[in-house]
């Protein structure tokens, strides 16, 4: 029977978007790229782990770099498959809803809430630590832990001010921060090359390489790219989301990988007895005071605030999206006159402030706490990555667009993300640290709690989980029906 033999399907289009009121056409390709790059903090990664990586991993360090960024690039390709077909503010939560259904999607939403909040906490506490180290490098040491707490609050205020001014403020602030950090990174790498000379080809030998250390190094690379997919949360506000979101995901990773590799190469010429880079003296190694290194630390602190601000924006848009779907309270779906989900933005504040405050009250040093918070966040976020990767084949099958390339990328990327989550969880438990397991338990409890509270699974309301921006009635032109062909209502 041909298509014309049966009745036309009944088509219903909304008069207004479920996301009505949010700013539209505000984010261009430059702004979106700034968000993506800021979340990866490539300059900080290169100046920290990048310069230390050859010594950490030993022979075969470059294989770790290729494997780690390769896994993340496959995940970016997988998420891009979703982003080229619909636009939303829910990122992985929406992706999983399209493939695995409502219950897994809500669990992934819990993972994103916990993981993003941890990443924001990491960004702000680490920024406070770098700013405090900058003051020490300038000769203003001995202030005590209260100064880091005060600097943390300054970072919170900076984020809130930029985000409540408009999406342009936050993305442009991120752009300026990353531009400054690139200049600083270039200066440090030039100084190191002049000081230690060019690397030899022998540094890339695999003689004595340990497969286990190489794989652990690759897992480390993945943990350095957490929340890289958060730029997809700006899909509703992006001018050409189907093109720009996937491009931003991949191009930002490519930039971060290139800078990391350059830092690796420069570091191979550094003698083994040189002062440790973890003293944060790149330009004046071994010195107690260094104004130039203080400047580097200030720029890196600014870059970390930009990381926190961008992830904060993504989490606010996730809460906004779920509110508009009827899953979270309606108040979180309110926007102001500039189209900013301001209530959702403010609602993130307690999630950001609580962990560092508890750490300070418990007498835990914020420097070590911030890094551990990021490592523990890798457990929940990599679970979310693996779930989104697993949902792609099912989603493509549902729209009859299954092809071998995207499915293979999703399978490999998902296995890699799951392996990283399992490795970090086992490592933490072996060391007697249950933070990753606790965050994962909280994430699952939040997700399942939303599932139970909303009564999903037994009503047609399932369709409201993971909604995307749909065509509106006023934007659709339908061919007139011919008598006997059915109807369109």
From TrEMBL:
Name of the protein described by the UniProt record: APC family permease
GO MF, one annotated term: transmembrane transporter activity
Organism expressing this protein natively: Nocardioides alpinus
Claim: Transmembrane is one of the keywords in the record: yes
Locations listed in the record: Cell membrane
Pfam families: AA_permease_2 (PF13520)
Major location (coarse): membrane
Annotated transmembrane regions: 61-82, 103-124, 144-163, 175-194, 214-235, 247-267, 294-320, 340-363, 375-396, 403-422, 434-452
Keywords: Cell membrane, Membrane, Transmembrane, Transmembrane helix
Gene Ontology cellular component terms for the protein in this record: plasma membrane
Keyword check for Mitochondrion: no
Domain of life: Bacteria
């Amino acid at each position: 029977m041909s298509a014309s033999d049966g009745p036309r399907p009944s088509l219903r289009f909304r008069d207004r978007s479920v996301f009505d009121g949010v700013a539209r056409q505000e984010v261009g390709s430059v702004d979106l790229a700034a968000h993506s790059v800021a979340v990866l903090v490539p300059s900080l990664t290169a100046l920290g782990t990048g310069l230390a990586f050859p010594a950490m991993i030993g022979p075969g360090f470059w294989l770790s770099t290729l494997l780690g960024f390769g896994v993340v690039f496959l995940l970016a390709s997988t998420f891009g498959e979703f982003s080229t077909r619909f636009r939303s503010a829910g990122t992985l939560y929406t992706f999983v809803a399209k493939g695995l259904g409502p219950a897994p999607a809500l669990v992934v939403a819990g993972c994103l809430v916990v993981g993003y909040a941890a990443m924001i906490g990491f960004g702000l506490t680490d920024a406070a630590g770098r700013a405090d180290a900058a003051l020490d490098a300038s000769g203003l040491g001995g202030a005590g832990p209260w100064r880091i707490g005060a600097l943390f609050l300054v970072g919170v205020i900076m984020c809130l001010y930029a985000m409540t001014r408009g999406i342009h403020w936050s993305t442009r602030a991120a752009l300026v921060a990353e531009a400054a950090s690139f200049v600083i990174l270039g200066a440090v790498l030039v100084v190191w090359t002049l000081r230690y000379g060019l690397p030899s080809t022998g540094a890339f030998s695999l003689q004595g390489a340990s497969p286990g250390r190489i794989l652990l190094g690759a897992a480390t690379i993945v943990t350095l790219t957490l929340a890289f997919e958060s730029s997809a949360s700006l899909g509703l506000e992006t001018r050409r989301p189907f093109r720009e979101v996937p491009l931003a995901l991949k191009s930002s990773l490519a930039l971060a990988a290139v800078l990391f590799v350059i830092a690796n190469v420069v570091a191979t010429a550094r003698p083994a007895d040189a002062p440790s880079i973890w003293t944060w003296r790149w330009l004046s190694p071994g010195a107690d005071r260094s104004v130039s290194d203080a400047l580097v630390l200030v720029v890196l602190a600014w870059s970390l605030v930009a990381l926190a601000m961008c992830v904060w924006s993504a989490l606010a848009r996730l809460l906004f999206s779920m509110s508009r779907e009827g899953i979270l309270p309606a108040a979180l779906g309110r926007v102001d006159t500039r189209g900013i989900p301001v209530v959702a933005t403010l609602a993130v504040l307690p999630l950001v402030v609580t962990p560092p405050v508890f750490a300070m009250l418990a007498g835990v040093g914020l420097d070590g706490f911030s890094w551990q918070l990021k490592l523990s966040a890798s457990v929940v976020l990599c679970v979310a990555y693996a779930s989104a990767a697993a949902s792609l084949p099912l989603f493509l099958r549902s729209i009859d667009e299954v092809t071998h390339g995207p499915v293979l990328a999703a399978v490999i990327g998902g296995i890699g993300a799951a392996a990283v989550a399992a490795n970090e969880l086992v490592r933490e438990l072996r060391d007697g640290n249950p933070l990753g397991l606790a965050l994962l338990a909280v994430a699952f409890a939040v997700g399942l709690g939303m599932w139970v509270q909303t009564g999903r699974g037994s009503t047609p309301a399932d369709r409201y989980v993971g909604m995307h921006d749909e065509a509106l009635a006023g934007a659709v032109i339908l061919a007139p029906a011919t008598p006997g062909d059915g109807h369109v209502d």
